[in-house]
Amino acid sequence: MDLGPYLLLAILEGAVMASVLALTAVGLSLVFGVMRVVNIAHGEFFMLGAVLAWYVTQMVGGPPSLGFGVALVVAPLIVGAIAVAADMTVLKRLDYDPERTIVATIGLLYIIQQLTLMGYGPEARPVEPPFNTRLALPWFEVRDGALALYWPWGLSTTSYKLAVIGAGIAVLLGVWAMMARSQMGLVMRAVQADRDMALAFGIPVERVYAMVFGLGAALAALAAVLIVPISQAHYLMGADPLLLAFTVVIIGGLGSLPGTVVAAILIGLSDGIISVFFSPTLAKILATLLVALVLVFRPQGLFGVRSA
Amino acid sequence: MLELDRVSAGYGAAQVLRELSLSVSAGEILCLMGRNGAGKTTAMRAIMGLIPLMGGRVLLDGAEVSALAPHKVPRAGIGYVPQGRRLFAGLTVAQNLEIGMRTRSSPPEVLEEVLALFPRLRERYRQPAQTLSGGEQQMLATARALCLRPKALLLDEPTEGLQPSMVDALRQVTLQMRGRGVATILVEQRPDAALAIADRIAFIENGRGGEVVPVEMLRRDPSLLARYLGV
Predict the structure, then answer these.
(1) Ranges for the ABC transporter domain (chain B) (predicted)?
(2) Which residues contact A287 (CB under 8 A, 6 or more apart)?
(3) Looking at the 3D structure of chain B, how many domains does it have?
(4) Which CATH number is B113's domain given?
(5) Is A145 part of any domain?
């Protein structure tokens, strides 16, 4: 295969990763932006989403699309509810203090992870995709002075991977519309801008916090449900998404949703391209290097606002 | 109308207010004066429930608002214009006003009334709040509080750092609110500004309430002001 088809393949793989990463990182960024809480347990909410997707598909049975469809709704809802409970029982009691909540969410990380190990076990388990048609992709070449399409051997993707990219875009657009156009988004942005003034204008800040923490976790869980038919559900699978989500959020700018999405696309695509042409390890090294450079030269991130 | 009954409050273990008692009636402007650090802003924050009381209570129309959750205090009818404006950065003028409107579910005509008081805000309606000039930001902070249709209004140094024309415009609005029966507590550092607008002046020192003096008395004998302020 020539370079061009390889590049298309790498971009498609990168787009799948970018889509899932953007959902996960937007959840993390939302929680930090509104609540000023650095949620170290975010990766575990991702893992719980995948594990619950496995449980739900096993319980529902029937055709894979039925179980997967139910998991797509139920897993984020359950994970969101668990996060709301964690917010009300742990973070609220710490008065959302930035330092103490870091320690508390480290504790949550281990509790969720070890409880999952006890209940679900150490095995990695697959979830069947709802559909998975292999789609051959065309490329073009110049033949007799004109462009002509051809079908290179091995240049293909699956309908499910394209659906993941589409679903990621649709959910991100939904989050953007919610933040920019809805009353709930207005309230969340007011709380983000000034917690005390939000209280002074009748906004129940603690209720907003609980909702945001639940929404952030639900987005991570949704990302996991989408990716679990491509990877597998495992109790230790939360570490990588957490690190990558932090990478994305730091590059994009803590609390900046547009920055998070742009950084997710940047990291996802570069990871896909570098992994295909070189190695996945080099992709991770370069992403980490980029974080270091951003922290040195633009600590507020690409889209963040430098605090006074 | 609005009453502080032996209110003690502070930050963490540090007590700032010590059994401060004050009251302001409907259609009255009470000016709170004192040196820096005397506890004026702390008193405003304590009324709004933004810091917990160590003792005492705050009453609005006889009902104890200090027993309410902080977000329910403005819903009871207390509007707050904080020191430094503290607008919702990132939100437009319209969205800042919308937050004020939703506090007590004000009917749409309230927004029209408020914009009639501050026509400049109508021109800047879709502009992000942080792009306004200092005076316009103060107008917006005041307008946002008026969107509640407040029974009581807390103004914390509303004219600080503003040009005279802007100070005059805000003063006129405050007087209009008095005419509509709003009970106003105004924190003011400048004696001339306090004398120009207040009905009574309450002096506060080291978190304790001092003399409460009708403003006519101070106009007749300005030397009293220096004595009460200890300058």
Answers:
(1) 2-231
(2) A244, A247, A267, A270, A271
(3) 1
(4) 3.40.50.300
(5) no
Residue with more model confidence, B86 or B166? B86
Q: Do B99 and A203 touch (CB under 8 A)?
A: yes
Distance to chain B for A193, nearest Cα, Å:
5
CB-based contact A194 B49, cutoff 8 Å: no
Domain annotation covers residue A140? no
Q: What is the CATH number of the domain that holds A290?
A: 1.10.3470
Give the integer Cα–Cα distance in Å for A287 and A302. Answer: 14
Contact (CB, 8 A) for B22 and B3: yes
Chain B residue whose CA is closest to A196: B50
Is residue A26 in some structural domain? Answer: yes
Residue pLDDT tens, chain A, 308 long: 578 888 888 899 999 999 999 999 999 999 999 999 999 999 999 999 999 999 999 999 889 999 999 999 999 999 999 999 999 999 999 999 999 999 999 999 999 999 999 999 999 999 999 998 998 888 888 888 888 888 888 788 899 999 999 999 999 999 999 999 999 999 999 999 999 999 999 999 999 999 999 999 999 999 999 999 999 999 999 999 999 999 999 999 887 889 999 999 999 999 888 988 889 899 889 988 988 998 899 888 888 776 55
Work out whether strand B183-187 and strand B152-156 pair parallel, antiparallel, or are unpaired: parallel
Strand partners, B29: B184
On whether the CB atoms of residues A236 and A125 are closer than 8 A, the answer is no
- Residue B195 three-state SS: helix
Asked whether residue A304 is domain-assigned, the answer is no
A183:B50 CB<8 A: no
CB of B50 within 8 Å of a chain A CB? The answer is yes
Tell if the CB–CB gap between A197 and B82 is shorter than 8 Å: yes
HEC profile for A131-183? CCCEEECCEEEEECCEEEEECCCCCEEEHHHHHHHHHHHHHHHHHHHHHHHCH
Whether A201 sits inside 8 A of B144 (CB atoms) is yes
* A189 interaction partners in chain B (CB closer than 8 Å): 88, 90-91, 95
- CB count in 10 Å sphere of residue A119: 10
Name the H helices within chain A. 3-35, 42-60, 64-86, 98-120, 159-181, 183-193, 195-200, 205-227, 239-252, 257-277, 280-297
Give the closest-approach CA distance of B231 to chain A in angstroms.
33
The total number of structural domains that make up chain A: 1
Token output for A191: 């709380």
Give chain B's end-to-end CA distance (angstroms, integer).
32
A256 interface with B at CB cutoff 8 Å: no
Which residue range(s) make up the domain with A290? 3-130+156-297
